[in-house]
């Protein structure tokens, strides 16, 4: 896992390493191939259940995928305006 790798890039890399097509992974997850493409291109955010299903099919710990989602959320938050301290 690369430090700047996105969730979608990670899923794609793992899918390819398991020699699965997008269609095969989508079928296993009960999603469309288009939805899988959107996930791999970071145009969709997976649900908790879908993340667990992806981890199961890709034979990895779910925490690997959840950590990647957390990293992306942290980066998105840091890109926003800095927090202002509450004044009382």
SSE blueprint:
Elements: H1 7-17, H2 22-29, H3 33-40, H4 48-58, H5 62-79
Structure, explained:
The N and C termini lie far apart (44 Å). The chain is built from 5 helices and no strands. The chain has helices spanning 7-17, 22-29, 33-40, 48-58, 62-79. With 88 residues, the protein is an all-alpha fold. Helix 2 (22-29) crosses helix 3. The longest helix has 18 residues, at 62-79.
CA(first)-CA(last) distance: 44 Å
SS element count, helices: 5
Please state the average pLDDT score: 90
Strand segment count:
0
Inertia-based shape: elongated
- What's the alpha carbon Rg, rounded to whole Å? 15 Å
Main β-sheet, in a few words? Answer: none
Strand residues, percent: under 5%
N-to-C order of helices and strands = HHHHH
Structural class: mainly alpha
Helical percent range? 55-70%
Low-confidence stretches: none
How would you summarize this macromolecular structure in one to three sentences?
By secondary structure, this protein is mainly α. The protein has helices at residues 7-17, 22-29, 33-40, 48-58, 62-79.
Which key phrases capture this entry?
88 residues, mainly alpha, 5 helices
């Amino acid at each position: 896992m690369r430090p700047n790798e996105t969730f979608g890039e990670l899923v794609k890399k793992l899918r390819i390493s398991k020699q699965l097509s997008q269609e095969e992974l989508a079928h296993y997850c009960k999603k469309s191939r288009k939805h899988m493409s959107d996930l791999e291109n970071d145009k969709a955010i997976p649900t908790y259940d879908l993340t667990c299903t992806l981890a199961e099919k890709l034979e990895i710990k779910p925490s690997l995928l959840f950590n990647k989602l957390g990293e992306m959320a942290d980066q998105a938050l840091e890109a926003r305006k800095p927090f202002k301290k509450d004044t009382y």
